[in-house]
Amino acid sequence: MAEVEAAKALGGLLNGIAQQVYYNNSDITEELLKSELYPEAAPEDFRSLLEKMKGLLKSIAAADMDPVQLEFFLTAQTRKQGGGGPTPEQAAALTRFWKSQRLRVRESLLNQSRWEPGLRGLSWRVDLQAAHGTGTGGTGDHGGPVALMELELGRPGQDSEFVSLEFDEAKVAEVLKKMSDIQESIDRIVHRS
Predict the structure, then answer these.
(1) Neighbours of 92 (CB within 10 A)
(2) Which residues contact 171 (CB under 8 A, 6 or more apart)?
(3) Which long-range contacts (C-beta less than 8 Å, at least 24 apart) are formed by 91-98?
(4) For the whole model, what pTM was predicted?
(5) How far is the C-alpha of 147 from the C-alpha of 112, rounded, in Å?
(6) Which of 17, 19, 87, 137 has the CB geometry, 3.0–4.6 Å to 166, for a possible disulfide?
(7) pLDDT tens digits, one per residue of 128-182
(8) How many other C-beta atoms can be found within 10 angstroms of the C-beta atom of residue 63?
C-alpha cells in the first residue's frame, strides 16, 4: 500500500511540475506541492526531490524523447555514480507521466517559443472592378482584377486580430516573385547542408 501512495505522490509531483513549467499555472507552488503530496518530508529532502524531477523532466521534454530514447536515458540516469539519478520507481513514474503528457508538453513548448502571432486563418477572393474604379480601395482607373485577402492572426489564449490586404495584378505578381525568391533561398540552404 505504501508503494501505491508513493507512486501517486510522485505522479502528482510530476503533474505539478508540468503545471508550473509548461502550462503556466501560477496557482501551483512549491509550498502547495509539499503540503499536498509530501507533508511529512523535511523541506530540504522535498526540495532535492523536486529539483531532481524537474531537471529530469526538462531534459526529457527538451529532447522530445520517444519511448526508446526515454528508456535509454532513464537507464543511464539510474546507473549514475554517486546516487544522483532517479530510483527505478522514479524512472517508472517519469515513463508513465511522459507517455500520457508528451504531446501536451510539446505543444506548450512550441507555443512558448513563438514570439509573434501565428496565422489562424486566411480567406481571399478576386474582384473585377468597374471601368472607372470606385471599388473598395480606389486602386486606379482600370477595370483589372483585385485580389482581396483577410488574415486572421493571434497568440494562444488571445482573441484574433484581422488584417485585410488588397492587391492589384502587379502587386500579386510582385508577391509571387518574392515568394519564389524565398523558396530558392531556402532550397540553396537546404541543399548546402
Answers:
(1) 14
(2) 147
(3) 92/7, 93/7, 93/10, 93/11, 93/14, 94/14, 94/53, 94/56, 94/57, 94/60, 94/70, 95/70, 95/71, 96/11, 97/11, 97/14, 97/15, 97/18, 97/57, 98/60, 98/65, 98/70
(4) 0.60
(5) 34
(6) 137
(7) 876 654 445 554 555 678 999 999 998 777 889 999 999 998 998 999 999 999 9
(8) 11
- Residue 91: CB atoms within 10 A of its CB come to 19
pLDDT at residue 55 in the model: 94
- CA-based nearest residue to 109, from 28, 18, 26: 18
Taking only the tens place, the pLDDT of each residue in 159-169 is 899 999 999 98
Beta strands, E only, the chain? 118-128, 145-154, 161-168
C-alpha cell at 170: 502587379
Q: Is 188 exposed, middle or buried (0-12, 13-18, 19+ CB in 10 A)?
A: exposed
Query: In angstroms, how far apart are the furthest CA atoms of the chain?
Result: 84
Residue ranges covered by each domain of the chain: 2-113, 118-192
Q: Residue 14 in 3-state DSSP?
A: helix
